[in-house]
Amino acid sequence: MLASIGLPTCMEGMMYPVPFATPEQVIEIAVWAEKLGYDSVWGNDHMTTQKYVREQFSTPPNFWEPLITYSFIAAQTKTLRFGTGLLVLPMRRDIVVTAKQIATFDQFSKGRFLAAVGVGAYREEFEALHPSWHVQRGDVLEESIQALRVLFTERNASWKGKYYEFKDVEMYPKPVQDPLPLYAGGNNPNAVRRAAMYGQGWMPAGMPVEQLRKHIATLKETAASLGRDGSKLEVAPQLICYIGKTHEEAVERFQRSQLYEHLISLKQSTLKDQAGIDLVQANLVGSAAEVVEKAKRLEEVGVTHLCGTYYCADTVAELKDQMQVFAEEVMPHIA
Q1: 259-270 confidence digits (pLDDT tens)
Q2: Residue 267: count of CB within 10 angstroms of its CB
């Protein structure tokens, strides 16, 4: 099972304090991840500050655009892969420009890009960027995925849909990877369906093992009904992690973290169908032995990649320490 980490591209105020990481420190974290043997780093995608973050912090958070951030990091790494967790396609109105950015980065990084896409956790953010665009974000996302595939596969690409339109676009070079790995992100049934129809993987977040088991079964069944091999689809959940010397220490640290507050906020959106779950049990929180056991249970139900794991931390030094503890005490048991 692969192991990767969440890179703090747009995490200040939501998952970490404000301020948290400078551009130099974001690069430092990624280089450290490669040195420790992580498969990839996964940056999230936000354009403006969420209301609950504005209420809590007097200083605006620093949000770094993931694709540009990755271009700097790729030049200083060799094997590390780069994923978006998630790239919010409905916020990016020009799908041809987005496709060109993705293809360019995949070329320059020599095929190290993984595109996980979603609708975005906060509708308020979408409305701030596009106040007059009254649409269903899920419908926009679905069409954008289809349009990307046309741009990545056809020499002269044309598309006329409800939300996007382009004609006779010869977009070269294409991505190095064929197909470019695309994960559908989200916890609801539509995300599972999109992964089965269009993707190479599915990326849920903070989902308990038994719920994962049921959705993975649906993922494979849906893929099979479409003539696809569901066993080849990656299952890559994003989870919170804190490894303490004892269970009690880990729980206490988790519950006073900004990440814990973030999960509470998501109960109004991404996690609204999981309002009653035990957040400690659903995430990688505990002693090293407990986290190993949780990871093995996830693998048993079909998880293939602990993807974009977010470590509780108030400083970059604490984050790097947790990354090292996981790499040394957990990864050898799940590789």
Answers
A1: 998 888 776 666
A2: 15
